[in-house]
Amino acid sequence: MNTSKATAFRKRKQITHKEVEGELNDLKKMWVLMLVTVLLLSACSSGGGGNTASEGDKASNEITIWAWDPSFNIAALNTAKEAYAKDHPDVKINVVEYAQNDIIQKLNTGLNSGTSNGLPNIVLIEDYRAQSFLNAYPDAFKDLSSNFTASDFADYKLGPTAYDGKQYGVPFDSGVTGLYYRTDLLEQAGYKAEDLQDITWDDYIQIGKDVKAKTGKDLITLDPNDLGLIRMMIQSAGKWYSAEDGKTPDLAGNAALKEAFVTYKAMMDANVVKLNSDWSQFVAAFNNGDVSTIPTGNWITPSVRQEASQSGQWAVAPLPKMAGQPNSVHASNLGGSSWYVMNNVPGADQAADFLGSTFGSDKQLYQDLLNGIGAIGTYKPATEGEAFNKEDEFFGGQKVFADFAKWTEEIPSVNYGINTYAIEDILVVEMQNFLNGKAIDDVLADAQKQAEAQLN
């Protein structure tokens, strides 16, 4: 390259740099002007004198809720939406239905990712699972202690919904149990209502033998993979699969669990059990008249009612108690769920207000839930209402809701802990070993070893 060409190249290079610098300066000026314009417009839209709205404020008029079961939980939410809208017409509430297992999976996935994106404002969580979430993700849920009065709810619901002295869940439905029984079938075997008022599980099995001898009907239907009956028994005695800390497995030395296993086997040995493998077979067993009793949670009432031809042939007695456990009572729980607010999702304060104003304090709402869908809550001030004291023709004129409300207050409080279902997976297998002849002490000792190995 000669000198003249080199000089010309340098000049062209210098001119190019100057042009670029000029263009950059022009762009910077444009961005500043645009930013000023946006800020001015934001100030005007917010009243002309203040700060821009935060992300939480923008989303505060919209609440998203996840729940399962359209005929029960979703229906309850829609009733609560209507009640809340009377004083909060501008708040939009989106109710999204998922299966319970899908909700658990979505929550775990979202919380493990460390982001709240895609999570709801409010989520329904089964009481058996609540402590596992609160222990694993304590910062993910909003403290609701100031949004409702915890003492207004049944005592047994407060343990699962609290963590580290704070109340994170608003208790919802009662899983209070009862012994549903066919009055006509038991009468054929010589039994009346008063004969079922203070019985043990041993008495219950004897009744089943007598009824089957007279009518050919089984006493109960059970799914071998579902130990709900065991849960009902041990909670009636104030015991659970874990120690009071909610973490340490309590199986080998658990006298209530041992008696529950022995009672379960006695039912099987008495040849009064009709096995089922899923929900539809469970419901069909009593709708078809194949069994004479259903010891379970009150949520089964709508399924019992669906066989209209059996109206007047059903009644509900207190749950049998455990003969060998001095603390066992005629009341227990099976299932039940509560409402939780996601702490880091925009709109958490509005969501907390919704729960506090509805499920946390609205007595009329609970009357409407009972009249509309048969949902029994655990809000004690609502149990005095008219809906709880109605006679029910389907149950022979019995005031079944008043009875369930009374039994709810008698349910022993236990710590469901963080491993209920993990331990139950072990016990399902060991129960089959027990039914096949393995000694009960060996069954529970082996279950204890497995739980300690897997969960510690």
Short description:
With 456 residues, this protein is α/β, with parallel strands linked by helices. It is 46% helix and 11% strand. The termini are far apart.
Structure in words:
This protein has 456 residues and is an alpha/beta fold. It contains 17 helices and 12 strands. The chain has helices spanning 3-45, 55-58, 73-85, 100-113, 127-136, 155-161, 183-188, 201-215, 228-236, 255-269, 279-287, 301-305, 348-357, 363-373, 400-408, 420-435, 440-455, and strands at residues 62-67, 92-97, 122-126, 162-163, 166-167, 169-171, 177-182, 220-222, 273-275, 293-297, 314-317, 337-341. A hairpin with a 2-residue loop joins β4 and β5. The protein starts with a helix and ends with a helix.
Q: Major beta sheet, specifics?
A: 5 strands, mixed
Number of helices: 17
- Largest sheet: spatial strand order: 2-1-3-12-6
Q: State the end-to-end distance.
A: 78 Å
Strand pairing plus helix content: what structural class? alpha/beta
Shape: globular
Question: Assembly type of the shown chains?
Answer: single chain
Q: Spans of 5+ residues with little confidence (pLDDT < 50)?
A: 1-59
User: Averaging pLDDT over every residue, what do you get?
Assistant: 89
What is the gyration radius calculated from CA atoms? Answer: 30 Å
Strand content: 5-15%
- The succession of helices and strands, N to C, reads HHEHEHEHHEEEEHHEHHEHEHEEHHHHH
Number of distinct beta strands? 12
